[in-house]
Amino acid sequence: MNKRQYMQKTFERQRLLNKVMSVPGPFPYVLILDNLKVDFNIGKIIRSAEAFGAQGIDVVGTSFFDPMPAKGCMKRVPWTMREQFIQSYQHYQSLGFTFYAFDSEAPVSLHEERFPDNSAFILGHEGFGFSFKKEDFPQIKFVKIPQFGLVESLNVSVAASIVMYEFTRSRGFSPPAGSL
Question: What is the pLDDT of residue 84?
Fold first, then answer.
């Protein structure tokens, strides 16, 4: 069995465990991972989502991903696989979510935005961006994560962690005693 086959087999096992063990986190936000690479970023984001209490994650345009970077969190955070972004968008729109996507050219910084309950954070592929055209979804609000230096952007799993932390921090999150 090669590495890719092992990854797929482990993924399927974790997918089954997720269906019976996952519980939405306490904070009213979800993540939509739009066509990310199958290697390590999706697993790392799921791991952070568990740490920061996300209600769920939609994985769009990916048939499987490496579960190892999630460090066991794939079975605890609800996640759904969808073929196209529009499916996630319509699902969360029907539930009254407000959508946010990230763009280094956005006019509003992350810390300036007051995220409402039921926020959906869309994170795109590091090399190709989003699978949709911005003009087709005028309801999506674009924000940026301010940064210094010459780097164009952050790793998508790092950006996701910053966004989740900022959302939970704005809700008065404080780690449970003894969690450090």
Answer: 97
The β-bridge partners of 57 are 31, 79
| β-pair type (29-34, 98-102) | unpaired
What does each C-alpha distance from 39 to 45, 64, 174, 177 come to in angstroms? 12, 9, 31, 34
DSSP 96: T
What is the CATH number assigned to the segment(s) 3-170? 3.40.1280.10
Residue at token pair 């989502």: 49
Rounded Cα distance between 32 and 75, Å, is: 18
**pLDDT tens digit sequence for 102-114:** 988 899 999 999 9
Q: What is the dihedral sign for C-alpha 62, 12, 164, 150?
A: negative
pLDDT > 70 in the chain, percent: 96
Are 56 and 83 in contact by the 8 Å Cβ rule? The answer is no
| Residue whose C-alpha is closest to residue 47's, from 9, 27, 20, 75 | 75
Strands (E), 12-147: 29-34, 56-60, 79-82, 98-102, 108-109, 119-124, 141-144
Kindly report, residue by residue over 56-70, the tens digit of the pLDDT. 999 999 988 888 888
> What are 115's two structure tokens?
């995220």
**Higher pLDDT, residue 18 or 85:** 85
